[in-house]
Write a structure and sequence with these properties.
3-stranded antiparallel sheet, 1 helix
Length: about 150
């Protein structure tokens, strides 16, 4: 039997339409999904920036260490060890800094004392968030006859 009243109060099952509640739920779900995606992208960008700065600081520390090794290689004889920082010519990228300790210790003389000097090179990222270190071992030059 068909309904006799065909006014706007009655809806047949075949009518296509979306209620306001269904539309609001859909918009809220899409908004939450977009918020999660944007938050995830922001986190990924910050992590990538931190990793890039840490990798650059590691490169700065290694480059400073190489410059230090080149400088020390030019020192010979009894002057192979220094108690003050070595005068290394090195320019780090903007915002980064590289340094060596302000006071260095030289080994004692004698055959029982190991003849080397350990220097820790420190490189810092802009803002000081990350610090990378490299340890350089300085030894006296080997005499030509013994090498």
């Amino acid at each position: 039997m068909l309904p006799t009243n065909s006014g706007p109060a009655l809806r047949c099952r075949g009518d296509a339409g979306v209620s306001l509640v269904e539309l609001m739920v859909t918009i809220i779900i899409l908004g939450l999904a977009a918020t999660v995606l944007v938050g995830g992208m922001g986190t990924a960008i910050l992590a990538s920036d931190g990793h890039r700065k840490a990798a650059t600081a590691d490169t700065v520390a290694r480059d400073y260490g190489e410059a230090l090794k080149l400088f020390v290689a030019q020192r010979t004889g009894v002057n192979w060890c220094s108690t003050t920082p070595y005068a290394v010519t090195f320019t780090p990228p903007a915002g980064y800094s590289a340094s060596q300790p302000a006071t260095l210790t030289c080994p004692g003389t004698g055959t029982s004392t190991p003849q080397y000097q350990s220097i820790t090179v420190t490189a810092t990222t802009p803002g000081g968030r990350d610090v990378q270190t490299v340890t350089i071992v300085v030894r006296p030059a080997c005499p030509k006859a013994a090498c």
